[in-house]
Every structure is written in structure tokens, then in C-alpha cells.
User: Fold these one by one.
Assistant:
Number 1:
Amino acid sequence: MRHVVQVGDMKAGKDGDVVVTHALGSCLGLMVHDPVARIGGLLHAMLPLSKINPQKAQANPYMFVDTGVVMLFKEIYNLGGKKSRLVVKAAGCGSPMGNNEMFKIGERNYTVLKKLLWKNNILLDAEDVGGTVSRTVHFYMSTGKTVIKSGQQEFEL
Amino acid sequence: MKKGRMNEIISDVRSFPSMSGTAVKVLKLVDDPESTASKIEELLRYDPAITANILKLTNSAYFGLPARIGSVRQAIVLLGWKRLGKLVMTSCVNAILDKPVPGYDLPSGELWRHSIAVSVAAELLAKELDIAADDEVYTAALLHDLGKLVLGNYVKEDLQAIEKAAGEGIPFQVAEREVLGTDHAEIGGRLLKSWSFPESLVKSVRWHHEPDGAKEPSVIIDLVHVANVLCLMIGIGVGREGLRYEPSPAATKRLGIKTRQLELVASQTLQWANELSDLFGAG
């Protein structure tokens, strides 16, 4: 089955599924996979911290990195994923051109992710983050294969 | 720049389909202090598609009326002239902006969703900043990328050269100018001028990527500028050129916007944009 993850959402899949997300600009795409259980999930989070809009965060925790990442891992564990086996990859977190700090939402998304992972003793296995490109991710549940497409480029992460 | 290219583009601007006759007439009536609700109702009676769209929009949560509206007359009474004009504009540009855009690689419906999102974000920004922006902000935002519909075919043709130029660290619209002699913002401005739109709207579209290029700074240009970059960042209508645009530090300073406010508006924009753009898709 093919699942498409919209901005501010998360989808999990099982063996044989592919989880897709489009148009990762400054948003974070986080892919978590368990190669033994052959399950995984993809989060497409828009903003770093839920405190900016607690009401929204309650209605939709996947909009924010701090609440979304926690929920994604919970879902993975619910589906039978084991922390020791998880492969974690990140994509997105881009920024527009120039040095206007206010618009570095992508960098802030990435910083919050790294802090969260560090606190929980989880390392990123691969990442394709930053820059000015918009990315599409295809994430295959059988193998954990993660394919990133941006502009004309397509490669496996 | 290829010779004669500019003439070709200008001729495409001239032959670009105009706004629907109903839209232009209604907008004139809305501006006319002598007009009455029944005149507008009469005009819309012959355009069931626009009428249906107006009622859908009026009843959407974004325009938030307490009771369900079943007729154009009720809509006019409850919304007032100016907001009605906004709804008519939205209904009329749907058909134009709904198309796929070559060059920028936007699939069908994506430019429409982007245009709606920028309108919503610009209004939310104005509200958050306590700026008394009138309905012009909404319309300017809605039409800001109109030029992409003309320039898209040319961008597609010369994509390699444009991407090469942009790859050297200049914003995408500057790369368009280097290769094509014009950019989508300028073409959008020309289109609106040819439709006899007010000069302030023409300027807002013309300078939406380079707000500091306008002779006089304008709060509407600044709002559209910031809202546009923000919507691209959150992936609404982001095309092949990605985030290769540069937000102006002067514009954010003029608006007095804080990081917290920008992020808050981002968190609010998505839902409204999806809701409003889906109204039209739902048929």
C-alpha cells in the first residue's frame, strides 16, 4: 500500500508498503524503520516547538518537531519496533537564501530534532538536510530503503 | 538573452485570457457607491458557477458567518461590499490559477493552493501585527504569481540556463531576468496592468520578490513578500526552484515582525489554506 504524508502529519506502514512525502522545504522529514519487524513511519513536521501554538499541538502533534517525533517513536514501538534495531534518517530542514535569521525555521527544526535524539540516545544513521532545495521522499517498509528526489537529482539515503 | 524573446513574452501577455466579464463588472459595482445589492444579485444570477462558489466561500469557516447563507443577497448583506468583492475575485481566479504550471513543475491545483495560502498568511500576518490592511492585501496575495502562468513555458524551454544561473547563488527571479530578460513578478504586474487593475495591486505583484525595489515601500508588498516565502517554506506551492528566493531583511524590519509571530502564522495558515482551496475541488 502507498501512504502519502501531508505537511504536519505522520503515517506508519508495514512490510510491502511505501510511505511518501512531497515538498519538504523547511519542514523536517523523519524516517524511522525497524528492519526485523519490517515496519516504519514517516513524520513531516512543520515547526520546531509546540509552545508556539499549544492549541494546535493538542489537535495535531505532528505539526511540531518536539511533539511529533515523540509520537512517531511511540507509534513505532506500538507496532513492534525495538529501539536497538531502529534505523533513523532525516531529510528537509532547508532555508531560503540570505541571512535573515527569522526564516531559518529549517535550521531550528533540525536543532530541536538533534536535541531530542541526543537526550534519548538515538543517532541519525543518515541525513540530507539544509540548502534551498525542496525534497520528495519515498520510504520502503520492506527494506527501509529511502529515496530522496530534489529537482533533477534522485539518490538513495 | 535570446533576441526577440521579450517580444514573444509580451505578445503572450496580450493574448492571455482576461478575467471573466462577470468578475470585472462585479468589482466595478463593488467600488461604486451608487450600486445596490439587487444590481449585484442580478448580475450574478447569470453566472451560476460564480454564485455557487461565492456561497461555498461565504459558508466556509474562514469567512466565519454565524448562520448558513443560502442566497447572494444574504451574503451581500452580511459580508458587506468589500468582502463580497474579495469572494468574487477568489471565485474568478480559481479557473485561471488551477492549471498546472510548466517550468516551475507545479502540478494542477498547486498554484491555486499556494495563492490561497499566501492570501491567508498575509491576512493572518496583518492581524498578528495589528496592521490595518484592507482587502487589497488578500487580492494582491491571491494574484502575486499570475506571471508564472505566462512565463512557465519560457522557463521550461531555458530551464538549464536558468538553473545554472540560479546555481551560482542568485535568487531564481534574478536568474529568470538574466536568461529571459524579465521575471514572473514583472510579467504578473504587466498582466494586471493590462486588465486595468489599480496601480497599487500592480506594484504589489510586481515587487513581491523584491519589496525594496518599489519606489515607495508599501506594507502590502511587504506582507505579500513575507507570506509568500513562508508558504514556500512550509511546502505549499514550492516548485522546482525550491527555496531559491531571498526574504528581505528591510521588509521584515519595516513590518516589525518577530520570529515567534512568523511561526505562529505558519501554524495557522495550513488548515485555512487547505480548507479554502478544497472548497473548489469538492465541486
Number 2:
Amino acid sequence: MKLTKPGKVSIIIVGLFISTLWLFPMWDIQLGAPQYPDGLSMQIWINDITGDVDIINGLNHYIGMNTIHKEDFKEFVYLPITMMVFILLGLIVLLLNRKIYYYIWTGIFIVISLVSFYDFYMWEYDYGHNLDPNAPIKVPGMAYQPPLIGYKKMLNFDALSQPHIGGWFYLLAGVIMVTMCYYEWKKSKTVAL
Amino acid sequence: MNKLLKYALLVFSTFTILHSCKMKTTESVVTGTAATKAYVAPGEYDEFYNFVSGGFNGNVSVYGLPSGRLLKMIPVFSVFPENGYGYSEETKAMLNTTAGQVPWDDQHHLSISMTDGEQDGRWLFANANNTPRVARIDLTTFKTAEILQLPNSAGNHSSPYLTENTEYVIAGTRFAVPIGEQQDVPISSFKENFKSTISFISVDKDHGSMNIAFQIILPGMDLDLSRGGKGPSKDWFFFSTYNTEQANTLLEVNASEKDKDFIVAINWKKAEEYVKSGKGKKMKVEYAHNTFDEETQQAYSKIENEVTVLTLEDYKDMVYMIPCAKSPHGCDVNPTGEYIVGSGKLAALIPVFSFDKLTKAIAAKDFEGDYHGIPVMKYESVLHGEVQKPGLGPLHTEFDGNGNAYTSMFLSSEVVKWNVESLEVLDRAPTFYSIGHLCIPGGDTKKPWGKYLIAYNKITKDRYLPTGPELAQSAQLYDISGDKMELILDFPTVGEPHYAQGIMASVIKDKSVKFYDIAKNKHKYVTMGEKNARVVRTGNRVDVYMTAIRSHLAPDNIEGVYVGDEVYFHVTNLEQDWDIPHGFAIKNNPNAELLIMPGETTTLKFVPQKAGMYPFYCTDFCSALHQEMQGYLRVSPKGSNVPLRFGIGESAPGVAVK
């Protein structure tokens, strides 16, 4: 069945929203401690990490955490490619103009999102658990896995992890797609064959 | 019997009443709101930076107002072992003079750079009295950037004072001395041979670099405090003088003979034009010029050997003398630039001169004679008026921007507030004790901030807890925003403040450098990164390229150094964050320590005299593992064949089997 007008428009909107990932960071991590009155922060982009990365790396070596370098992340190559392909697929869906393709397209989005979050979680796990055995400061049983999302206290640091502007647009895109799928499906029930 | 009783009662009651008459003490001088006015709550900032001269400690101290808290000591003319100033290879040259490296001086006065008569907070100029020099301090780094020695001068007290737009820093000599080739003359030949010199130091608009543009030679007398004109009088400079009697001995008596000395008015703009047009002679004389280059992080000392000099024959219409009562100490120009206040320290009045009247009198040639060829103005023709019975011993006047003047009275130990136009005395506030100078932030510029006044006193006695015979100098902070002056804080100061400058914190605080960008470090011996840490021998000179980062010094094991070697530790602080300095010191080094800021490279020299083991370590608490930040230098006897080896961790000598 053909897509509704709102359905077709939503593909454009979703494409634009996902494009913001190239303009704004996806994710934001804030760190606070008494000795850092201005706070420390790190922004994760679709293809980069910015913020107080050098200072955080300097602090990390005390507790044996790995240093963070842009070059270490293959994700910064795969993710931009994946997103560009996804947007192109959206345009193809728009041309083919069939509801079924829209449902598949949304499904692909959900899979990409789940894989991304899982990857982020695994990276944070490794980063927080895989510590240098010769680290100067060793707190028995302590792991420094940053929160996937939300607040956590680690030693003298408060950590807050949340989506940044690009991330919010991405999530919003997902919400639009899922809502549109339901709308399309509802509409398909009421249209005369 | 009755009479006797009455008499006894009378005597008894008199004594009781007299005993209960107490004189006013401080408790009754301070009102209830003083505490809140002087209090700066934790986490809040002071409103003003207060740069205070160190006097006989040779440095400049920085206080916050209104809290009176000491924020920093800036080393300028004295060695400062605390951070290695004057000891490190990079800063030694700053204290170089034609008499060698001079480790101390007497720092009296300060001036903050101005643009159009308003403070711009770029540089702070400071004078050295004993070995005449002027320093320029960079107010983004709070470090001494340049020191220029002054030839033909002695007792550089009348210094440093600025023209309205910081075109020149002016420095006048206190002592008249013989200048030129023949200086070995009898002291009693003062009148014939001794001269007074005023140096005009040009300041580069962009970089601040100083150079002596020209000097003016005056007949021998003592020059005292001076001020640049403002607004209408901006092309002029005014000096107070004393000992125009030209005495060379027992000045206490002989220099106080004449009823009036002078204020010397100099049209510096005309002098500048004369020099440009080729007037004046080039005189051969040596003086040191030291500059700290921020890029290479190194001080360079150069000996200049020539100066342009203007003498009496050159200037016919640029110097005039205005009679001023009794050995004036101070000479201050009000914010509009119209009034010039002379403070005769032995006088019982304050004369106020009018610039408008001065220019008219000069045009009308209204002179009453001449002083060694310099025209002397008729006192009444230039006078605006005299402040009558202000107090005893006026020294220094500043202004609040509301038409009021505040003069310090050394002998009557008070600050007197008076109106510049009407010459009426409006208020008096006692100081504890014997005020020398006072400071109103911006009070010597076109735009004073008329909120606070600080009195810098010469006698402390019982103001604070006693600390043996040698006491800190006392200072009092007054709120002058109302009609009457209100004492709000009493605080001790370091060294002996002679003068101070205050500036609104917002002008400086956001430009303050937090740390140095290591990518911009062009020091000759910088070590970019720990992998480049190494030790290099050239003959009997050993250069240690060392890095410091939390929490280790690299290399931290060094062998193969011999007795008598000249060892240079070049330590680079690799940190790139706020407030992470590292220190460096090595055992038995007759030298000071180093404090290295993030991104900096600093060098400490060590010449070991005995074979043995010399630990070195970081002296500034930098991290949780600061105590672990250490190393060893092995010194072997001269001629031994211990090879030069160095390293840290796995690369330390002896760990790896070679």
C-alpha cells in the first residue's frame, strides 16, 4: 500500500534530524570533583571526541584506566557510513512509496540503535574494568564503568552521562518513525482497497 | 571639719571624674557596618586588585580589597628563592646591572599603565631606588618582564610616573650627582658639579618595551614625587623639589632653610619635539637593559652605551619653576588636570596651583626671577588658593572623582578630606599611626573609583599582636563613598609600602594566564614529551633534559656525573591544566629551588663538590603521589670511568641487563 502524506514527510524530517549528528555531539559526559570548580566534560560526536579529554586522560592513569584517543575508535568510521546509508535507504523508501518498506526501514533503525548502545555499553565496561594492574591507586573491587545514561559517583568524582543535541534529535527521529509506523498501519485499516 | 570633708569630697570626685574620662580609642571609631563592608564571603572575589610597593623587600605585593588579603608576592628587584627568581638560569639576568648582579633593591612607587588617562591594566611599572632602575610587570602573568637601568641618576625615588597615554615613564633622580667623564670631584663642589637628571622612558604601545628616549639635566637639587598632567595639562609634567638651597651636608637643617622650594613644570611635549629636531647631545654612558622573553622563556641582558641628553642651553621654553612652600614631598594633579597640589612636608598649608593660570602667566612672562637660568613664576600668579590649617606634615594627595582631595598628614597622623575648588576642609580621619602615603584606586588618574581609600602607615606599635621588635607595617582601609570617611579594616602589610595602585578586578582578572601552552614553548632546552628526556655531556658540562608530570620526574636515575661538572637541570612541566606547578630541588645545592608552571621550562644549575648520592625531588605538592616524585643523581670522583646513563622505570640504568 502507498504511504500517507505525513508518512512521506516524516522520511524527510527523520533524514534532517539524523543529519544533525554531523553538526552537534551525540553524547555528553560531565565529571565533577571538589578540585575542579569549573567541572570537566567530554562530548562524543559521530566521528570525534572533544572536551577535556587530555585532562581526563591525565587523571585516569592514576587508577589504571586506558587513555582515550580518537584514533582508537573504529566506530567513528562505521557510524557515519551507516547513518549515511540509512538516510539514502530512506530516500529509496520515499521513491518506492510502499508502507512495507517504511516498516522495514524503521526496523533497521531500531537494530542500529540497539547495536550502538550495546557497543557503547561494552566499551564503557571494558574501559572501566580492564585496569592496569600496576596502577598507583588500587581500590579493591572498584570498577570505573561510567554510567550508560544517568548519574553515578566514582571515588571523588560525580559522573553524569546523557544525550547531547545530536543524540536527542536521533532519539526523536526514532520516536517519529515508530509513531509513523503505527499511524500508517492504522490508516491502512481504514482505506478502501 | 565640715570644710575638710567637703574638700576631701571635692578632690575625690575630681579624681574619679578625670579617671573616667577616656580618650577616643579605635573601638569608638569603627561603626557596626564596618565588618560587612570589609568582609568578602568564601567563594566570592574581592572588588579590587591592590598593588602595593614592597619598600625595603624589593618586591611588589598584591592584595585584594576590601578584604585586605594577600594574594601574591611578585619578585621584581630582589632575589626570590621561593620560586627561583634571580637563581634560575632563566631569570638571573633580570638583576644584572653595570655593577654586576645586584640581589636586592628598595622598591617605592608603582604606576599602572593608562590609556587616555584611564587605567588599562596591561602593565605595572615599579622603581628601584638604590641602583636606579625601572621595571615593567606584565599583568597577565604577574611576572617581571623588563628592567631598565637609569644612567646619570642616583636614588631613583621620583619614579615611575606616567604621561596620560603611557607614552613615557618618567624617572627623576633624588640625589644630585656629578655626571659625565669627571665624577671624582670634592663633595663640597655640589653647586658647581652636581646635576639632577630626569629620564623619559618611551613605552612601546603594543609590547610595552622600554627605552630611554631622552634625559633632561637640571641644576643640582633633590627631586621628589611627581605627576603627569591630564586633559588640558597632559603635555606637562610636575616635579616637587627640595634642597634647592643646594646643600651637600646636614640637609636636615641646611635643606630646610628656604621658605619655599619649587615645583618644576616641564613641557615634555616640547622636549620631545626638541629631541626630534636634533637638539640635545648624545652622551656615552653604560646602563643595563634586561628583558624576559616569554617565547624562549629566557631573560636577556644587554648593556646600552648611549643616551640623548637635553641641557639648559637646549631648553628655553620648556622648564619653569613654581615656588612651593617648605620642602615639598608630593605634587599631585586632580582628575580634570586643572589643579596641581603641592604638599610641603614642613608647611602648615597646602598650596593649589591652577594650570590655566600657569599657561597665562608663562605667556605674559610673569616671572619673579630665575633659578640657575630657569624662569621662576610669581607665586600669586599661578596660585588657585591655599588650604588653610589642614593638619601637620602634608605628604600626598589623591582624588575621589567627586571634586574632593584627600591628603595624608604624617605629623598629625590623619587623612584630611577637602574640596579642590573651595579649598574647604570637609573631614578628618585618624590613621594608626603616622600615615605616609595613601591610595584611592584610580585616584591619580582621570577616572578615580571613589569608594575606598587605603592609608599606608609608618608606625605600627600596638595595632596587632606583637611579634618581637621588628613589626609589619600597618594599613587601614576607609570607605569614602559617603560624606564622612569610615574606617572599615585594619591590616598588616609586608615589606614597607610607600605607595600603591588599585584597579577594578574586572579589568585584569579575565586576562590572567592560567597556564602556558606547551606547543608555544620555544625554550632552547625544552623537552617535548617524556620520550625525549635525556642527559647530554659536552666536556664538563652536563645538560639534563628533564620532564615533570604527575607524578614522576624523568629521567629519575642518572649516573656518570663527576665532581666539578656543571650540571644544568632543564625541567619542563608537561601538564596542561590549571594550577599544577611542579618544583625541583637537589640535595646540597648552594642554590634555590625551581617552581615550574605548566608548559614552562626552567633551569637550575648544580656543581657537585663531593662524590656521592644526591636525591632530587618535586618541592611543590602536586598530586596524591607527590612524595613519590623523586630521583637520584650519582656523582662519581673526577676522572672515574662510570659511564653516563639515565632512565626511569624499565629504562633506568642497571635494571636492564646490557
